[in-house]
Design brief:
alpha/beta; five-stranded mixed beta sheet; 29% helix
Amino acid sequence: MTRCLTIDPQCPDPVVIAEAVTVLQQGGVIAYPTDTVYGLAADVWQPEAIARLYAVKGRPATKALPVIIGALTQLTQLVTSLSVNAQRLIEVFWPGPLTLLLTPRENVPPGLLGDSDRIGVRWPNSILNQQLALGLGGAITASSANRSGVPVALSAAEVVAQLAPSLDLILDGGPVTNPEVSTILDVTGDLPCVRRAGRISVPALEAVLGMRIRVGTAA
């Protein structure tokens, strides 16, 4: 039976955080509230944990998994370099609901990337998310807590209905109050491209970059 622990996302109990980090260190998969919707966390450096998360979601292995960092210092573990555009966006929108597609380091587990040559990274505006990643010492996955093709979960009860008992732990932070997903922006090329519309608008991105950006489909 999946355990469920109550937690305050903006003032999380250190004991609960420690328990969740232990589960992740042991290769477990947990559900947790992000600053957008409920997500599924696994240790990005454990290929077996990543494979298990794909199985829990029923997600095609060709589709990459986005990740969450707890501090900017963790970004260098995952990506090779940052363009000027990426740096500008980070300065303005992180921590927050912007996922940047960047070039991964060679040691990033292939199972995390699917068929993509990019990795989606976000630094969220959630103390809970940040402490999970920092406690683990590296990034955690940020895939939405739902079966593939099914609407995202906006509460712990919806996570239970879709995914229990496949999970090791659910952190119940209450219902999501602003369910709009993060904006996904590809900044690996000269011309940034929105791959998924979300909470941060195209005009807001263009205002920071001082250029028009493309709007495409998920890559």
